Amino acid sequence: MAGKGAKYTRVHRPVKVLFSQGFDNKHDALHAEWAFKHQTRRRKLVFLADHGVRLPE
Fold this sequence. Notes:
InterPro entries: GIY-YIG_endonuc (IPR000305), GIY-YIG_endonuc_sf (IPR035901). By secondary structure, the chain is mainly α.
């Protein structure tokens, strides 16, 4: 890393991408991100498990 990342990720390490999904346009991507962020933690964990993401313990 060149040390040019966002301030939050520089301070809160380590950062690891657990899941990503492609969208046809920015509107759909932002809508999906908003919807995911407004779920409960439990629903987020169920979503990730349903998509084959295994969280580190």
